[in-house]
Design a protein that fits this description.
The chain has 415 residues and is mainly α. It is 80% helix and 0% strand. It has a domain of 82 residues: Tetratricopeptide repeat domain (Serine Threonine Protein Phosphatase 5, Tetratricopeptide repeat, Alpha Horseshoe). The chain is built from 24 helices and no strands.
């Protein structure tokens, strides 16, 4: 009996010893399986494998780096950061570890730490194209477009296969008013892209930004022939056509985008703008309202709805919408002006005056604002101020103010 117990204990001890010896191999096996799953974009399954690898052997920096990468892809950035920290604690001088942590810091908007890590990665390996690319993105975020272009140049020099670097360099060049350089980058994307639909799409969207609406229309329609189920392409074709005054065609493309995504707030807002252009205020208000329901901070939708309500005679409703715009964007001068006009139409001249004051302070040559403030001043018994405003409006070339100046301000007219 005693001998049997001894044998059993011995077997257990041997099994434990074997398991302990096998742990590193089992950990490595789980890690390699995780890498295979990561390469296949099966990130949740890969995460399980990396967890297993770390549970079996928590001393290997590469395991933490791999798990951190997957956590980042899954937008678990705080967890990713913890993993990269551990990887760097174990192995402080691995370029990829600093690159990955720098990318995560950038996502978390900790730009100083991101820059420190990306600089470290480049110091460790000055041929690491991805580090220059990421540092370019970081510099662009901080409005250092010259620095961003320099980093994109180096990244492309080291690895010309990263088409996103051409796209990003194009965006930074555009901010520097180097539009020809930007177009050249998008051309390069189209030449090299395995998926030209995306390249045409990106170049088309860029052309929209620089107001080359015909070029945008052509590129986006080319993208659509290659990938016909892209809501963003459909939406942006609508934008190009709207700006080319092809309003019915624009509405048709907004409809197609909304058929793919019935919660596409930008498409509702833009379709509402098209209806407003056609003076169909009822449909415009419906679409602006839908856009606001989907995005409660959609400034342009509130403003567009305010204009639509004013043009359809709902001045109280327009005042509410213009006030919401001002709440979201306190420097949106035109919202003050239109709120002032709506208040004045309702006879609320005292309430209108501060709005006119605001916009005139922002734009001292806004003749129509002087004219309207003059009317509100006249209605609040400030005849001197009214005449000053009518005269200023006339001096700025606003002929509609001349009858008011002649009727109410004979002395001012003679000055």
């Amino acid at each position: 009996m005693k001998r049997g117990i001894i044998i059993a204990v011995t077997l257990i001890a041997v099994a434990i010893a074997v398991y302990i010896m096998m742990r590193p191999r089992l950990a490595e096996k789980a890690y390699l399986e995780g890498n295979t799953l990561t390469d296949s974009s099966l990130f949740e399954q890969a995460l399980v494998k990396y967890n297993k690898a770390i549970n079996l052997n928590d001393k290997v920096a590469e395991y933490y780096n791999a798990r951190g990468f997957v956590q980042s892809v899954l937008d678990k950035d705080s967890l990713a950061l913890a993993d990269f920290n551990t990887a760097i604690e174990i192995k402080p001088d691995v370029d990829m570890f600093h690159l990955n942590r720098g990318k995560t810091y950038r996502k978390l908007k900790n730009y100083n730490s991101a820059l420190e890590d990306l600089n470290k990665a480049i110091t460790l390996n000055d041929t690491l194209a991805a580090a220059y690319y990421q540092r370019g993105l970081l510099k662009a975020t901080q409005m250092d477009f010259d620095g961003a272009v320099a980093d994109y140049n180096r990244s492309i020099e080291l690895d010309g296969s990263n088409l996103e670097a051409f796209y990003s360099r194009g965006e930074s060049r555009a901010h520097l008013n180097d539009f020809m350089g930007a177009i050249a980058d998008y051309d390069k994307m189209i030449e090299q892209a395995e998926n030209p639909a995306l390249a045409y799409k990106q170049r088309g969207i860029f052309k929209l930004k620089i107001q080359d609406y015909e070029g945008a229309e052509k590129d986006l329609e080319q993208s659509l022939t290659l990938a016909n189920n892209d809501k963003e392409v459909l939406f942006n074709i609508g934008q190009a056509k709207f700006n080319l005054n092809k309003i019915d065609d624009a509405i048709s493309f907004y409809n197609k985008a909304l058929k793919i995504d019935s919660k596409y707030d930008l498409a509702y807002g833009s379709r509402a703008g098209a209806y407003l252009k056609k003076n169909n205020f009822k449909l415009a208000i419906q679409d602006f309202t839908k856009a606001i329901e989907l995005n409660s901070s959609y400034q342009k939708a509130y403003y567009g709805r305010g204009i639509s309500k004013a043009l359809s005679g709902d001045y109280k409703g327009s005042i509410s919408d213009f006030s919401k715009v001002i709440e979201i964007a306190p420097d949106f001068a035109q919202a003050y002006y239109n709120r002032g006009v709506s208040n004045a139409i309702l006879g609320n001249h005292k309430e209108a005056l501060p709005d006119y004051d605001f916009i005139i302070a922002k734009d001292s040559k806004y003749a129509e604002a002087y004219f309207n403030r003059g009317i509100s001043r006249m209605n609040t018994q400030n005849e001197k101020g009214a005449c000053e405003d009518f005269k200023k409006a006339v001096d700025l070339g606003y002929k509609q103010a001349e009858p008011m100046l002649k009727m109410y301000c004979r002395n001012a007219e003679q000055q």
